[in-house]
Write a structure and sequence with these properties.
This protein is of the alpha/beta class. Helix content is about 25%, strand content about 30%. It has helices at about 10-25, 40, 55-65, 115-125; strands spanning about 45-50, 70-75, 80-85, 90-95, 110, 130-140, 140-145, 155-159. A 4-stranded mixed beta sheet has the order 1-4-3-2, with helices on one face. A 4-stranded mixed beta sheet has the order 5-8-7-6, covered by helices on one side. The radius of gyration is 19 Å and the shape is globular. The two termini are about 35 Å apart.
Amino acid sequence: MESRDRGWARTDSDTHRLRSHAKRRIAGSGTPEAPLSRWDVFNSVRTVMTFAVDPGASARWWGELLDVPVKTDVSDTGAVYAWVEIGGVEVGFHPVDDERNPRGGSPVVYWGVDDVDRARERLLAAGCEHHRGPLTVEPGRRIAQLRDPFGTIVGIEGP
């Protein structure tokens, strides 16, 4: 297992984007010179965080299923944050906190798959439970949701 500092320090590129935005606001009337495009705000998904009663067990299950290493970080309080990386995206499992971050209160992440039925069957065989779908949301695009053994809803999307 690998661990790393989970600090929320801004990167140089984050600081540059924030300063550029601030300069556009300051120039002239205090409003941006041009509307911000989505790329001025977002680049790509880097981390998807879900909340779990046992973050380590959740990450190990996904790590074994997908054959990827599990990484962990333990805070000074002993809380475990564990994650796996899939397709360049960190999928993290944070300790559940019923007051601030209840289990199941996180967004549903949809992973692109080549075949919804085949991926769904593999996830069901691995221990997930049916939650919703499969549904055809438009021609050639289907989705389904499953609940992993730890209560996290995961979505799959594809043909």
